[in-house]
Amino acid sequence: MKKLEKNLHSVMLVYSGYSYGVDSSRVTRNVQLGLLYLGTVLKNNGYKVSILFTDYPYLDEIIEKIRNEHIAIAGFYTITDNIDRCVRLACILKELFPELIILMGGPHATVLDKEILEKYKSVDIIVRGEGEYTLLSLVRFYYDCYGKLKDIKGITYREGKEICRNENASFVSDLDSLPLDRDLLEEPVRSTDICYPKIITGRGCPFKCAFCYEGFHGNVYRMRSAEHVLEEVDCLIKRGEIAYILFLDDTFSVNPQRTMKICKGLRNMSEEGRRFVWFAEGRVDVLSKYPRMIYAMRLAGLAVIQLGVECADQKILDVYEKHITLEQIEEVVKICADAKIPSISINFILGGPFESRELYEKNLDFVRKLMKIAPGRLNVSSTLLAPFYGTRIMKEPDYFGLKIIDSECKTGITNKTCFCETDYMNEYELTSLRIDFDREVLNIMIDVSKDLTRDVIYENFSVKYYGIDSQWVTLLSSDRGIKRFINLKLHKSYFSIDELEDSMLNYYPVRTYPLVYDDDNRVVFYKIYGKEILNNTDSRLYEFSSGKRTFGEICKIAGENLFTGLTSDEVYKRVKDFYMAMDRFYGVIFSKI
C-alpha cells in the first residue's frame, strides 16, 4: 500500500442534507456534532481536517477543495434522507479522483453497510457505529501504514471481491474524554454556531421505541458529567454571544440528579449576566416523577421543551413500547405550563400502527384537551411514519398493521412523505390526513387565541428575539395589531395603559391597526379569529389616536364633537373606557413623547 504524506494530504468530512428552500441563505443550522467529534480526534493526533456542512452542495467548489487541500480521504455522514445524495457525490468524486478513499458512516451506513458496498463500487469502507477511534485507526493505516484493515474494529470493507465485516468497535465509555474543537467549523457555519450552538450531553438510549433506531444502535446509555457539560457552555460563552443552546440528546432529563446539577450551573451563569435560553427534550414518565426538575429547568433558562407524545391511544403507545401513559402526558404538560415554559412542543406520528379516521379524531380531541391545559404554549407538529432500517417497524411491519410501500424512502423527505399504508388507509388518504391534521391544529389554535393572557403573548415574542420561531409566534404575528403592539412595547418609550402614571393627559395614544372601514365607515380590526367592528363613536376616537395628539387633546376634540352635553370628567371617563377596551385588543399603545 502506498503511504500518504501526512503533512501534504488532509481528510474531508461531509454532511450534505436537503434544504426546504424557506430562504435563500446557504447557511445551515444542521451542524452534525458527530463529524465535529471525528474531526477533532484526527486534528488532535496531528492530521489535517476539513469539515463541510451544506444543504447546497456546489460540486465545483467541492472538486476545487479536494484539489487545493490535497484531500486524500473523504468521509460522508449518512442518514436515510441524504444517502442518495451522498452516493451520487461519491460516484462523481471517485470518477474524477480514482485514488480518493471514500468512507461512509452514520446511522444509515451502519445498518446497510454490506448493501452499500455491494451496490456502490465508489464507496471503499463503511465506518459503523461511533467512529472517533475507528476513523483514527483508518487514517493511521492509510497515512502511516500502521496496522492492518482486518484488525480495525467497526469497519466493513472489500477484500478483492469479498466484503469483509470486522467485529463491532466498543462504545466510548467515558464521554468526558472526547475532545471537541469548534474552530474546525468554517464560515458561515461558524458564526451560526456561535449564536445557536448544539451540545450533546449523552449517547445511546436505554429505551427501545419501535420506530426509533437510536435505542437499538446504542442502548448502552452513557452520559457526560454535569461539570463537563457546564465547562463546554462556559467555553461557548467566552467564544461569543450565545442566543439559544440546543441540547440535542433524546434523554437529557433521564438522570434527574445530573440534570439538576446542569440547571444549577446554567442558572448561576444567568445570574452573572450571561444571558441565553435553551432547548431540551424530555420524557414524560421521568418528568412526572420529578416535577421539581421542570421548574428548575425553566429557572435555568429553558425556553423550549420537546415531549415525545406520538399518539393519543394508549394501545398504540404500548405497541410502540413508549412506556408512557396519556395521564403522564397531561400531567407534564400542565406542570410545564404552570412553570411558564414558553414553548411546549409535542409531535404526533400519523400513518402509524392501525392508523384510521377514528384514531385521527382521537388525536385531535387530545390536542384540544392539551391546548386548554397550555394555551399559547403548546406547539403541535405531525410527521408521517418513516420505516427506518434497523427498527422493529421495518423488521416486523405486519405486527404493527403496516404495509411498507417504499422501504428505501425514495418518494420524498422522511416525516413529510408517506412510505407505509395501514389496514384502514392507503398512502393518498394518509397524505391528506396529515394535511388535514395540521389544518385542524391551526383551527384549534385560532379558537384558543381569543383568550390568551398578555403574559403568554409576551413570552412568545420574547423568545422570538433569541431566534426561536414557533407556531404560536407565527400565528400571533399574523395579527397586525398584536405584532405592532409587542414590537413597540419592546422600547422604553411605549407603554400599555396599565403602566401609565396617574395623569394620562400628556401621553400620546398610538393605534396599532391600520384604518380599515366597512360599508358604514366603521373601523374594522382583523383579528386572528375574525373581525372586530367598532361602533361609530369608537371608530372616530380610533381615528384620533394617531400618536400625534395627547390623551388630553383627544378628550377636548371628543367633547366638542362626540360627547356634547357631557362634563369634562364624563368625557375623560368615556375616552379612558374606550382605551381600556382597546387595550384588550392590543389596539392602542401610548407614547410619552
Characterization of the model:
The chain is an alpha/beta fold and 593 residues long. It is 41% helix and 17% strand. It contains 23 helices and 22 strands. The protein has a 7-stranded mixed sheet, with helices on both faces. It has a 6-stranded parallel sheet with strand order 8-11-12-13-14-15. Strands 18-22-19 form a 3-stranded antiparallel sheet. Helix 3 links the parallel strand 3 and strand 4. Helix 9 (226-239) runs parallel beside helix 10 (256-271) and helix 22 packs across helix 23. The protein is elongated and about 105 Å long. The model has no long low-confidence stretch (mean pLDDT 93).
Discrete helix count: 23
The helical percent reads 40-55%
**CA-atom Rg in angstroms:** 29 Å
What is the number of strand segments? 22
Mean pLDDT: 93
Multimeric state: single chain
- Stretches where pLDDT is under 50 for at least 5 consecutive residues are none
Q: What summary fits the major beta sheet?
A: 7 strands, mixed
**What is the CA-CA span between the terminal residues?**
79 Å
What proportion of the residues form beta strands (DSSP E)?
15-25%
Give the spatial strand order of the biggest sheet.
2-1-3-4-5-6-7
Report the structural category: alpha/beta
What's the shape? Answer: elongated
Quick overview of this protein structure:
The protein has 593 residues and is an alpha/beta fold.
Question: What are the SSEs and their pairings?
Answer:
Blueprint: E1 10-16, H1 33-44, E2 48-54, H2 59-68, E3 71-77, H3 83-96, E4 101-105, H4 107-111, H5 113-119, E5 125-127, H6 132-144, E6 155-159, E7 162-165, H7 189-195, E8 198-199, E9 202-203, H8 214-217, E10 222-223, H9 226-239, E11 244-247, H10 256-271, E12 277-282, H11 284-289, H12 291-299, E13 302-310, H13 314-320, H14 326-338, E14 343-350, H15 357-373, E15 378-384, H16 392-395, E16 402-404, E17 420-422, H17 427-449, H18 454-464, H19 471-477, H20 480-489, E18 494-495, E19 508-511, E20 524-527, E21 530-533, H21 536-544, H22 551-561, H23 568-584, E22 588-591
Parallel strand pairs: 1-2, 1-3, 3-4, 4-5, 8-11, 11-12, 12-13, 13-14, 14-15
Antiparallel strand pairs: 5-6, 6-7, 9-10, 16-17, 18-22, 19-22, 20-21
Helix pairs in contact: 1-6, 9-10, 10-12, 15-17, 22-23
